């Protein structure tokens, strides 16, 4: 074999080795990662945004996506930021359209090749603008069943800052659960407004509410300080109030992120309302662990709640989705 043939053979062997290394030395999906942006009007750490942001960070860690995000984007800056990500070749943009509902839809309309997926109280728009939200009213109903059974004062309360259709659904479901457990227990629901949640929570407790349903850190802090049992909303609040958090309605954006990312990767993405991926059957909502309350709750009550949970998951029980503003009890 002459030197020229040996050199050609060596190069071919080296090329085959490199191909084999890249095929077997890393996950098959690595080269299939898509670029995803998160565009948020507030802090990444705010309860609602944190759920979305952390799900996308997890997808990045699992090498499903390449993720970058920006926070505190004002409506005035929203169009520029979105177009910048489009121009950089991002395949998918997650975000929240608060205060910029028309702007984000206009940008999506002008860039149909990019997938947009936004937390919104409004609807999806063909061909590329999908919507999602925290539709976790099913575990909120379970929290109500617990509160209605456990209340000794005959009065429980739910407090939040500002109305939202998905939040209305959770608060109404909580009230429905309380009534199903004990129709004589009164449920007071309060939208306190920004900056007033702590004061309203304290007032509700002083007036006799012995269980509080809330997803605002200010309300959770008051419950911890006053040692009043609480049910959380949006995330597992146990770490913030380990001695007072009974359980809660938890939102998991993982199923929504997985669904959307896979659709984009496989060229089957289309505009849709992704509500069902934030519900219990798809794993997007669940009842938080009881933690320290596990041994404090009656066994029969825990069994009853678990039976209802299984009925919801199997489709044998449907919790009403009432998005209207909660009225007086």
Structural class given helices, strands, pairing? alpha/beta
Largest sheet: 6 strands, mixed
Taking Cα atoms only, what radius of gyration do you get, to the nearest Å? 24 Å
Strand order of the largest sheet: 7-6-8-9-10-11
pLDDT averaged over residues: 92
What oligomeric assembly is this protein in? single chain
Q: Alpha-carbon distance between the termini? A: 94 Å
CATH superfamily of the largest domain: Response regulator
Number of discrete domains: 2
- The CATH top-level class label of the largest domain: Alpha Beta
Shape type: globular
Relative helix content? 40-55%
Total count of helical runs of at least 4 residues: 10
Reported CATH architecture of the largest domain: 3-Layer(aba) Sandwich
Report low-confidence residues grouped into runs of 5 or more: 14-30
Report the count of strand segments: 11
The CATH topology annotation of the largest domain reads as Rossmann fold
* SSE ordering: HEHEHEHEEHEHEHEHEEHEH
DSSP strand content: 15-25%
Describe the model.
This protein is α/β, with parallel strands linked by helices and 329 residues long. It has 2 domains: 30-132 and 253-278, Rossmann fold; 137-251 and 298-314, 3-Layer(aba) Sandwich (Rossmann fold), CATH 3.40.50.2300. Helix content is 42%, strand content 17%. It contains 10 helices and 11 strands. The strands form 2 sheets. The chain has a 6-stranded mixed sheet with strand order 7-6-8-9-10-11, sandwiched between helices. Helix 6 links the parallel strand 6 (155-160) and strand 7.
Gist of the model:
By secondary structure, this protein is of the alpha/beta class.
